[in-house]
Amino acid sequence: MRTHFGPRLALAVLLSTSLWVTAQTTTGKIHGLVSDPAGAPLSGGTMSLFEGIPSSPTETPKYTFAVDANGKYQGEVAPGTYTLIYRAPNTPKDKAADQIDNIKVTAGADTEANDDMSRADYLNKLTPEERKAIEEAKAKNASILKENATIKNLNADLAKARADRGSKDFADAAALMQKDAAIKPDEPLLWVELGEAQLGLKQYGDAETSLQKGITLETASKKPNPEVLGAAGNALGEAYGSDAKIPDSQAAYDAAAKANPSGSAMYYSNEAIVMDRNNQIDATVAAADKAIAADPTKPIPYYLKGKALVNKATIDPKTQKILAPPGTAEAYQKYLDLAPTGPFANDAKQVLAELSQTQSTSYKASKKH
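Predicted structure:
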C-alpha cells in the first residue's frame, strides 16, 4: 500500500508560511515629534496611548513611549484608535501637558502623529498672557535662527578669506571681510582677518586700525581667546614694524606673547625678523634673546642675534683683527649646531672664520624672562 506524504507536507509548509506572514502584519507603528507652542522641539517626557478617550489622565495607558532629547517618540502598537497624552518630565501624574484624540493606527503601516502645540485649538485654551509670552518666544526663536544662519555664512566667508590669503589673493580676502565686518561689526575674528588681508596688501595703516579693533573686541568678550589675541598682536607687530613704528611694534609683540604664552617663541622670533628688517640692532638682539628664552631649540633667533651683534664689531688697531661683541660667535655657532645645512649656514661659517673663532664654542641660552 503506497502512501502520499509528499503533497501533505508541502501543504503544511505552505500553511505555516501563510500564518507567519499574517502574524507579521497584525501590528502597526506610530511615531511623531512633540513641539512647544513656539514651534521648538520638547526634550524628554512620555507619550502615552489610550484606547478610546480616557476619563482621567490617571488611567493606565495601553502603551507609553519615551520622548527623546530631540522631541521624537516611536513605537509598535496594535491597530486601533487612540488618544495620545503627552507629559513633560515635570508634569504631575494626574495632569496632561497635551492631549490629541482619534489617532488611527493601521496594521502594517507607520502612522505619523505629531503633537504640535502651536495648533489653534491648543492656543485657544491659553490665557492672553500665555499667548503673548508664546509670541515673544516665537520672535526670539526667529531671531536666533536668523543669527545662526548669519554666523554660518560668516564662518564660510572666514574660511574662504583664509584660503584666499594662503594663495595671496589678498584683495579678495579684504573685500570679503570688509563686507562681513559691516554686517557684524562686533565680531573680532572678522576684523583680525581683515587686518591680515590688508597687511598682505601693504595697507599698513588700515591693517593697524582693523587689527586693533579686533583686539579691543576680543579683549572685551566674556572669555577672550588667547590664540585670537596672539595672532592679532603678531600681525599688528608686523604692521607697525612695516610702518616704521618701532616702539608700537615691540609693544604689540609683547602683548601677543602675554596673551598667548604658548606662541611666544614664534612671536618674538617674528619680532626679531621685523627689527632686523628695520636695522634696529639692539631691538633685534633683545627680541632674539626673548625668542631663545622661550624656545632654545629654534635656530633663526640665534642667527639674527649674531647678525645684529656683528654689526657692532670693531677693528683692533694693533692686530687689525675683528673684535665682535660678546656672544656674537656663540650665537652663530649655536645656529650651525641647530641648522648645519640651514639657509644661513654658509654666512655663519664665513663670519666665524673672519672672527678667527673655532666652531666648537659652547653657547648657553639666556634665562627666560
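Summary: The chain has two domains: 26-123, 145-311.
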